[in-house]
Structures
1.
Amino acid sequence: MSRDLDSVFAALADPTRRAILAMLLEDDMAVTDVAEPFEMSLAAISKHLGILASAGLISQEKRGRVKWCKLEPDALRAASVWMQGFGQFEPVNLEAFEAFLAQELPGLNS
Amino acid sequence: MSRDLDSVFAALADPTRRAILAMLLEDDMAVTDVAEPFEMSLAAISKHLGILASAGLISQEKRGRVKWCKLEPDALRAASVWMQGFGQFEPVNLEAFEAFLAQELPGLNS
DNA sequence: GGCATATTCAACCGATTGGTTGATGATTTG
DNA sequence: CAAATCATCAACCAATCGGTTGAATATGCC
């Protein structure tokens, strides 16, 4: 159980992986399309997706030769519960979240 | 700004560091006392505390020869906002949090 | 069949991580 | 002053990370 937290937080610690998650918020995507905005090899993105998948943050389903990536937000619940215990933060604040996305993804938010 | 998220999530990815944060929830502690429950050298704990401090998750104040460590829960706010955007999780759930602490700290919850 | 496309695998690389040990610097105490 | 205590520093180590490249494996299309 705390092993899950290890892999979830470790997965979230990389900005490329957080950007990928933000992209998948909008829609499911194929691996090649996920890789397109990044200045990085396809193999590197494939590894990042593997890390996100093994943390449970996304699922991957192969249809034909295309592997579709889908956000699995439930995997964040345990981590979210853990964090909220430290601060009694205000409840869900989507406006603040949008502001963060805008800062984190300059150029990616089409 | 997203650099902050890098260091906060990376700091949270280690179970020793999460256990330290949970200990500091109860009270401020000296470095030696933080180290006591762990089967690990004092130098290792000192490094962990340095990582937590540079992520802003704790502050350290030296009084005499003792360095006191204090939880800084505000540093989690940005990360919490980021995460909550993915799931619209239910608001603060302290019961679930207590259950997590009990699982994460077998033997540490005196 | 043959070629292009989608994705992963395998080997490699330099940098970072999480730990150790021994020495060192402050500070308190006797 | 001398000895003990609190904490960090410095050097080292094996393991992991984030990236690369080139080859391999499916799958789809003409």
Note: Residues 10 and 30 of chain B are 23 Å apart (CA to CA).
2.
Amino acid sequence: MRLLVVEDEARLAAALQRGLEAEGFAVDVARTGPAGLDAARHGEYDAMILDVMLPGLSGYELVRQLRAEQHWLPVLMLSAKDGEYDQADGLDCGADDYLTKPFSYVVLLARLRALLRRGAPERPTVLEVGDLRLDPARRRVTRADAEVTLTAREFALLNYLMRRPGQVISKIELLDHVWNASLETAPNIVEVYVGYLRRKLGRDRLETVRGVGYRLAM
Amino acid sequence: MRLLVVEDEARLAAALQRGLEAEGFAVDVARTGPAGLDAARHGEYDAMILDVMLPGLSGYELVRQLRAEQHWLPVLMLSAKDGEYDQADGLDCGADDYLTKPFSYVVLLARLRALLRRGAPERPTVLEVGDLRLDPARRRVTRADAEVTLTAREFALLNYLMRRPGQVISKIELLDHVWNASLETAPNIVEVYVGYLRRKLGRDRLETVRGVGYRLAM
DNA sequence: CTCGGTCCTGAGAACGCGCTGAGGACGCCG
DNA sequence: CGGCGTCCTCAGCGCGTTCTCAGGACCGAG
């Protein structure tokens, strides 16, 4: 699950990132309104956590812009409750949920999970490819109706692959989305985890495309 | 979509090439400043990804030179953020966008797409010539709806040929684009791989034009 | 027909990618 | 503290891929 956090306050952004990553999300952070908008447009996130007060472009304007461009990414808005903006405004402009600062981290998580469960309307909440089934909300994977237990990392990897079955996905892209790693890190870790998945899901489910990447058999 | 990557660090260059090719781009790599400049002048690319630190000619100088010659190829610059040069310099000398190392691959992709969007509209991702079909994203080739498995090099060669069906393409050009090879390497390797392709695709698909090069039958 | 050059192809060597098992670091829980 | 599970690093290995090479086929010119 990929999240975009748009927050200019460095400390809060870092805390959110760390916390959410501990939950198994892949988190990207943008520091300004325009940067956030750009990332949301192109990044294929599952949800966005968005501060209202941002340099360059306010959270409200950002969502309005995004919706105008037909992006239906779930948005969870954060704002100081000092009155200038209020909750109605936030929901009005197209956000899916709303939280006022200071908020409890547990509440944020709960709201976020709820959002993700709803998902974008056109995307099914349960991914199915062949006899594989993956439920992001319940964090469950079954193969031919038999449950398969995966570690957080394995789950994240499979989740990513199942969103683009049949396509070849490069190791860098996997490193980037599943590990949030830079280009310098050794791609061997991907090979290792593909190995783990193969052991649990069956040998020929994940095809190696030599010199390029991996493909989930359809 | 054709991209030119100018980067001297071998590992990063290779990673970028793979990742971007998996996205369906046709990627050429140049290792030095002068080589990059030369390629940019003649290559008809849709965009260029350009490192700042390069042997022979810096990225800055390269762009400046290019712009002075009236080439308006979109340029995405990469640089270490260790201060010596800064972002303003980069944009100043004519680059269209700027990224500091280490950067995330998603961000690079997003910025690149944004750059390309300003330019020409995207071409269809699947190439078709006769009953041959090549899908760069899925890394798949079919001949009369039957799948053909190709090695990386074979795929790269066919990919290049299929972008200009009916045209005669010289061995040097193929060496240059498919192998990224210097002029010293023996052109026999091209003959060998044309042989491999003929074996897999059918004898009369690739025509030899003696003394000149090869042509993909339309 | 002969000759020079170009192209084709099979054999095999060299290389490097990807796979795997072993094991260390770390955090969590009893 | 010790046991456990997860995550990751590392080195060795196997094998597919890539490339070199040499001999022969083919083609065009004279």
Note: Residues 151-153, 186, 188-189, 192-193, 210-211 of chain A lie near DNA strand D (CB under 10 Å from a C1').
3.
Amino acid sequence: MTAENPQRGLVLVVEDEPSIADLVRLYLSRDGFGVHVERDGSAGLAAARRLRPVACVLDIALPGLAGTEICRRLREAGDWTPVIFLTARDDEVDRVVGLELGADDYVTKPFSPRELVARLRAVLRRAAGPPGGVAQPVVLGRVTVDPDRRSVTADGVPVQLTSTEFDLLAHLMSRPGRVFSREELLAAVWGYAAHAGTRTVDVHVAQVRAKLGAASVIRTHRGVGYAADG
Amino acid sequence: MTAENPQRGLVLVVEDEPSIADLVRLYLSRDGFGVHVERDGSAGLAAARRLRPVACVLDIALPGLAGTEICRRLREAGDWTPVIFLTARDDEVDRVVGLELGADDYVTKPFSPRELVARLRAVLRRAAGPPGGVAQPVVLGRVTVDPDRRSVTADGVPVQLTSTEFDLLAHLMSRPGRVFSREELLAAVWGYAAHAGTRTVDVHVAQVRAKLGAASVIRTHRGVGYAADG
DNA sequence: GGGCTGTGTTCGGATTCGGTAAGAAGACCC
DNA sequence: GGGTCTTCTTACCGAATCCGAACACAGCCC
């Protein structure tokens, strides 16, 4: 089950669908990772403890033990290995990220394997970065975004955003001043294989602006895209 | 079968329906891609190996060898050329992307050729790796250009440029001293399919100069084109 | 200086772009 | 099954922007 080639470390993949597991293994090993695959939840948890991988890719729906459960048990035991979830539907995302679990990222099916690799690299970069470990809230002008709690405040007042709206705002504020094209935002927030029209971005931006009111932080760059004020 | 014009590289299209193939060829070549078309699966696979295209557009349902199969064989052979699938029905999508295959994106029929081109560009951009993440601001004389923020300052004072004006200035300043002809600038800033007259460049140069004022950086090379001061 | 070519500048119509509202589709909860 | 919430699409409108023509001007050659 293990493809050893760990120039970049060993990644644990827990996925019961063989075709998906093979694909993920293919792409990860191509990228220089060692890969170890388990097919059910309990074996996955055991492998995580035994092998000490640099990161875990967990399907949510697993026989034996759900991916979420694996993550939670790891965290309880003080294991903060980066975890990326594979989720079947967007709906699961809210529960998944940050709320119940210490997940670091997630990828929704159908996903491009390239995307998974890209996110894995990003997660590892992040984990290696600031020693703080915990994601810091981002403050910009009168707006604060807390990626951990997925909460937003404007002038200290909590603002209720939907999942998509939050991801959009958080992504813009992750790099203040940086201008993102609509395509970039679609890729980052909606996912690589998203097939929404680019005007969809506009509508969601408008929604976020309305909810933030006068504290709004999103600036339009005509002919290009959007950016968070810096 | 091959339309050679590959300023942007060669794209392999495998599609048995001639009308669709022609349409795709038309749009891709208009966008500056070279296009090679094959009509059945085995020939497609052979062409992919022989021609080493920058990307493949594969119909799923193909005589001889399914598009999915072509993709899988390429991957197995260590060929990671980006692949976009053409799928007839939405239902196939779940199975298609990432699940069974190493596809990078997909387009469902009936599709807009524009969308296909847009997705192809996105995929190539992605495959080229992260765009450097943080682009460094360019300083030349009294003018600073920050590609990330799409902001310009002259003597430290922010200057408001429109999208086209910014792209023009940024392109000139990306290679200080290099003289660009009007045609080159049209191609680079306006795009390959630009049908604007070359005098349009003059007008925009004038506009940029006016906004930069005394700090202006653009020099005219009579009979040739424009350059940023070096 | 006189022509000639190439460039600067101005300006209005045409086009494109983004904000907004309204509604359809789907998921979820009760 | 009805109601609610979220997401995505579409249509419309005002405004920013672009384009190209027209004209004025500057440099080059004789």
Note: Chain A touches chain B through 31 residues (CB under 8 Å).
